[in-house]
TrEMBL record:
Cell location: Membrane
Source organism phylogeny: Bacteria, Pseudomonadati, Pseudomonadota, Betaproteobacteria, Burkholderiales
Protein name: Diguanylate cyclase/phosphodiesterase with PAS/PAC sensor(S)
EAL domain ranges (all copies): 23-277
Full protein segment contained here: 584 to 860 of 860
């Protein structure tokens, strides 16, 4: 906190300095993370509530650095976006996830979508549609098995441009899910033009759904709206049976969360997938 007085001021600058040092450290270390093979994807299953089957997995980036330790994506993705490194990292994520999906198909596991998080910076890059097409072709993965998770924020500065890219993806057959839905600022009037097939209900609404009638009302409204607009819904961050029961009663289509399965490295997830397919 910024305070008056010499000590308060000093505290403030030291704290800011620490923040900047760490960001610089991460930025530099990240530059070598790809070539040193420090990035991994973990995968978390998405369960259909109508069939009780796994219908997809979400790829979540993990970075283990020898000195910095395990750095959370929430921390390093923002730095990678600001430094321009997200393009290379994002391409690696897309390619690795697509190849993993193909490999699981080849193992004879039931078909599932592979959900990949896309940052706004990646989404705005003019070569994205071409990159996605190339990666799908390389992995020999049919486009309907790839789902891009975009936050509402991608459309913030240039809604028409964003809608055009989504339209392009949709034509290609790739699915789009709107992540963290309900926390962004996008105009609802754009929603129907987004070519999204799914709204992902943010975990902040799921967390208190059993105690907070307002959160329950919001979840209910999101589900009704999605269904009226021809979209389905997935709730993220489901941690308890009570949450699951409520979400099912509200007509939510899919769930994802620790209650069902934590994000896991591919070697470990495959056993879980086998048991549930
Ligand atoms: P997100 O896309 O909203 O992902 C959901 C986060 O919730 C993940 O955190 C996941 O591990 C965590 N989670 C899953 N189930 C539960 C649960 O039951 N309870 C709780 N409390 N949390 C749960 P994670 O893996 O730390 O990722 C954080 C964020 O970093 C992601 O939020 C996403 O915005 C970003 N991210 C992760 N991987 C990538 C990536 O490959 N590319 C980009 N651009 N962003 C990524
Ligand atoms: Ca999905
Ligand atoms: Ca996500
Ligand atoms: Ca989220």
């Amino acid at each position: 906190a910024k305070q008056s007085g010499r000590n308060g001021y000093q505290f403030y600058t030291t704290e800011m300095q620490l923040t900047t040092d760490r960001a610089l450290q991460i930025e530099n270390a990240l530059r070598r993370a790809l070539e040193r093979d420090q990035l991994r994807l973990h995968y978390q299953p998405q369960l259909s509530l109508s069939t009780n089957r796994i219908v997809g997995v979400e790829a979540l980036l993990r970075w283990q650095h020898p000195e910095l330790g395990q750095v959370a994506p929430a921390e390093f993705i923002a730095i990678a976006e600001a430094s321009g490194q997200i393009q290379g990292i994002g391409e690696w994520v897309l390619r690795t996830a697509a190849q993993q999906a193909k490999q699981w198909r080849d193992l004879g596991l039931a078909p599932m979508t592979m959900s990949v998080n896309l940052s706004a910076v990646q989404f705005r890059h003019p070569d994205l549609p071409e990159l996605v097409a190339r990666i799908l072709a390389e992995a020999q993965l049919p486009p309907q098995f790839l789902e891009l998770e975009l936050t509402e924020g991608v459309a913030l500065h240039d809604p028409l441009g964003a809608i055009a890219v989504m339209e392009h993806m949709h034509q290609q057959g790739v699915k789009i899910s709107i992540d963290d839905f309900g926390t962004g600022y996008s105009s609802l009037s754009y929603l129907k033009r987004f070519h999204a097939h799914q709204l992902k209900i943010d975990q902040s609404f799921v967390r208190d759904i059993t105690d907070d009638p307002e959160d329950l009302a919001i979840v209910n409204a999101i589900i009704s709206m999605a269904h009226s607009l021809g979209m389905n819904t997935i709730a993220e961050g489901v941690e308890t049976q009570a949450q699951l029961t409520l979400l099912r009663a509200q007509g939510c289509d899919e769930v994802q969360g620790y209650f069902f399965c934590r994000p896991q490295p591919p070697e470990e997830l495959v056993a879980f997938l086998r048991a549930h397919s």
